[in-house]
Amino acid sequence: MSRANAYFALPLAALVALVALLIWLKPFETLAPGAPPVEALTFESVRLEPGMFRAKVRVDGSGPVSIAQVHVDGAYRTFTQSPPGPLGRLSSAELAIPYPWVDGETHVIVALTSTGATFDHSIDVAQATPDLFGPTAWMLLLVGLLLGLAPVAIGLMSFPALRQLGREGTGFILAMTVGLLVYLLIDTLGEGLEAAEGVLERFHASTLVWVVAIVTASGLIGVGRRGDKPPEGLKLAGFIALGIGLHNLGEGLVVGAAFATGETALAAFLVIGFIIHNVTEGFGIAAPLTREQPTLINFTSLALLAGLPALLGVFLGAQVVNPLWTAICFGIGAGAIAQVVIEITALLVRQSGAAKLAGAPVLGGVVTGLLVMYVTALLV
Amino acid sequence: MLDWLQRNFSRRESLKSAGQLGLAGSICTALGIVTPASAANAKMAKGHAGHHSGENRTVGRVDHARNGFDPHAILTDWDRGTLSTDDQGRSVRSFEISAIDKEIEIAPGLFFPAWTYNGRVPGPTLRANEGEHIRVTFRNAGSHPHSIHFHGIHSASMDGIMGAGMVNPGDEFTYEFPAKPFGCHLYHCHAVPLKRHIHKGLYGAIIIDPDPELHPEHRDVALSRQLGSEENRHWQEMVMVMNGFDTNFDDENEVYAANSIAFAYMLDPIKIDPDRPVRIYLVNVTEFDPINSFHLHANFFDYFDHGTTLVPTLKTVDTVMLCQAQRGIIEFSFKDYEPGRYMFHAHQSEFAELGWMSFFKVEGS
Fold first, then answer.
1. Inter-residue contact B50 to B234 (CB < 8 Å)
2. Cβ A69–B59 below 8 Å, yes or no?
3. What is this structure's pTM?
4. Which of A123, A155, A176 is the last residue of a domain?
5. Residue B94 belongs to domain with CATH number
6. Which of A71, A78, A269 is the closest to B18 by Cβ?
């Protein structure tokens, strides 16, 4: 080993020695003799089947967590846990709880651990979890297509109209697209942070949302600029479509989850709102194409890229996914949107110069984009 | 439990109002995307469609041996203390009680860091005769100051409150008082914070049997209550202390029971001989909830409030409610009843479903 390598090994060896010493000597154990164990438990998902709740729980704590009993609606209920026995740190188990739940009503499940700690989960409106291959699958398919593909395609139809605009107009439209995307960025991050609240603290999910977003944005900027050429035209439209698609994946998750948790009325509103809202997204994708000669295949691909992830999201969401994955999905979506915000802004700078960014057309466009998104979001 | 009810009602209300937002909703209904509320109601109780039924009970078994007490044994294990005569010629009945910190299993796998009298919850059921002199030597082997406050008649210095019989950890005190009035009584720790000291498990029953010679007008009734008499042997007597446990210390009970163990008498019903009458010494010490109650299925009973009378204070009832510290004697018979399981429980459904649900198993005669 060379001397240089040894220098790198020195701090590593010191760290290993320190950690080993702490584990071996347990110096802090005397601080809290006989202190009750710290326990945490989250319900990652609850599937509703006829006469049955299937709850996936994950635990954390200073030691293994034993689920002693289960209440449903303030009554002890028989249940089976698989795998049985105490659950190690961060491990999960399924609780199958037979229960004559009532369609459309609220039920509360409480897990009691051996220490008497209670962890509760509310099913706000009980409804059977849709079967992936059942009759509801067609409904989910329809919802997914309505949510993503249809509005983006409609938005793209504005392309011939956009082409009629002059240089100033195109700049305005691009600036508006930035506004639209910034709105989506805020929205996506918000959703991700909200999903993160349902995750065990140890996963630091809210930080993870930001980390994933930054990593995704950096990665996409790197990929987009391979060959030292910033994305423009069709390539930029492709990235916008990708960012919007990932955002729509998140929207799909929300709508699918709303269906799965029985909030069908809520889900139906979300669909109508998202359709109107998402037309503006098609608009944004078309914006960088005004000086190109895109083919029908280009348009179709862009629409599919931006629209189909919503379908995937609806199906995944309906299956009651782990909130950690939901948070990560939103983080990816936010990163992808951040990338296109940066690239469109860069394009505006190349086209008109940095000074124009503070000009009325650009600022007006950004504000218009934000307002359009906010107003259409009121429908959601 | 009120908290979650309120919380959930507010959530449901907000969803309902979302469902009333008009146009968009009706479009969805037309598209078949959403089920109208009325249709949803029509298919209520969809949960029943399955083959699983599940049961309202706990899963597994409590290890009574590890607890050091068995809820079935507690029903009848009267502590008679030791009887002696002092220099003044009085009959003195002496008991020994220690306060002990102890973790107890109150439902299968569910442990509670209890404070106990003699290592059990409820504490020993002290039983004395009217007119005797009671002497209780109390040792505090616990980690906090404790006392025993007896519901009865005694002097101020024997009250078991701050400055009168409060015992620090490691110390000892002797409570002395006459055994009167006869009846079914309660003793509990009166250290503050009172709520914590009571719900942690420091309570028990003390029964004073009436002296038949002092009650000539109801001599037969008094005789039947006097433990060990020929008349008393005919009765099936048992003590039930209605209690609750707040395992997560949020001032709401997670477990309710008679004699501490959730569903103990449901999973193992109390056997009843139909040819002998039943007498229950019932005490309510439930903390946090204003009242508890006792309801008997398929039968009616006579109730003697506080057990201080020899004629019933309530006749022919099937439900009685008691505030905290209220107690009484319940008498009934299953004579000529069809053999089988007869339920009894708190008629607060919440308490019943959280553990205070039980069975008598009437045997064939």
1. no
2. yes
3. 0.79
4. A123
5. 2.60.40.420
6. A269
